[in-house]
Amino acid sequence: MPPAPRSDLPCGGLDLGGTKIEARLFSPGLDLLDSRRIPTPTGGLDALLEAVADQLHWLEAASGQGAALPVGMGLPGVIDTGGGPAFAANLPVGGHDLPGALRQRLGRALPLLNDAQAFALSEARGGAGDGAERVAGLIMGTGIGAGLAVLGRALPQIQLAALEVGHLGWPARLGDALPLLACGCGRSGCFETLLSGPGLSRLAEHRLGVAVPPEDLAQRASHDPAAEAVLTLWADLAAELLLTLHLAQDPQVIVLGGGLTRLPGLLDRLAAALAPLRLGPLPLPRLALAVFGDASGARGAAIHARDLAPC
Ligand SMILES: [Zn+2]
């Protein structure tokens, strides 16, 4: 067993996204003390490093701890922590050694965590997965991302990728009901093409002839059986991805996050779709909605940095 996670220090987290960099300061008990949001600069890597440094220095000053404050950063994409090139959609880090550039600019450690991993860790520590030994997080929003926390910790990441399950192909047993669409990753038939928010709209377009946004589709489903059938098909697809997480990673709980969790009755719909897929007597994981929502990226990164802080 690893040592118990630290809980004696305040900590700070940065959430780096395509449009904003959010800084959040937490008490030793992980209560939110203060936050500050600035736009993500569009001027390239140097401007980005400058903005990250600005947020880091604000956290250090606001905490009264200076550079002793553990701070981590969550971000989307794939980063080679060994110094290789980075890739993150909507961020000017492509091809750069981001961890090295941050170290040089900041003069201190800034542990990085994929945002889906940060989400899983945040929910495993005081969130919807609190107390479970293995917590998977599945984010269904503009894209699909997943992460795993084990014994309340983020897994060590060699390449800063999460569980990139959105780019697995959906199973043939779903038959001809689904359109085979090109994915942003360069292949076709990925879960993400139909399961994300834009994916659900595409599925509606395929079945109804018109692209309906998810929230309108849910409203329409209450009186239109064809719209309801689209949501049922989407839930069958989501259940296949939940089954994949279950069989491959063995989580006790799968916490759901992202914009599509606002679909009414989502948990019941997904549980009903998952139940028939159960493999023999294997108990299925519990499904739960995220507690921390949009705060998870910064909160998970802060917890991760504090766990790595020297005693
Ligand atoms: Zn893909």
TrEMBL record:
<dbReference type="GO" id="GO:0005524">
    <property type="term" value="F:ATP binding"/>
</dbReference>
<keyword id="KW-0418">Kinase</keyword>
<keyword id="KW-0119">Carbohydrate metabolism</keyword>
<keyword id="KW-0862">Zinc</keyword>
<dbReference type="InterPro" id="IPR043129">
    <property type="entry name" value="ATPase_NBD"/>
</dbReference>
<keyword id="KW-0479">Metal-binding</keyword>
<dbReference type="GO" id="GO:0045127">
    <property type="term" value="F:N-acetylglucosamine kinase activity"/>
</dbReference>
<dbReference type="Pfam" id="PF00480">
    <property type="entry name" value="ROK"/>
</dbReference>
<keyword id="KW-0067">ATP-binding</keyword>
<keyword id="KW-0808">Transferase</keyword>
<keyword id="KW-0547">Nucleotide-binding</keyword>
<protein>
    <recommendedName>
        <fullName>N-acetylglucosamine kinase</fullName>
        <ecNumber>2.7.1.59</ecNumber>
    </recommendedName>
</protein>
<dbReference type="InterPro" id="IPR000600">
    <property type="entry name" value="ROK"/>
</dbReference>
<dbReference type="GO" id="GO:0046872">
    <property type="term" value="F:metal ion binding"/>
</dbReference>
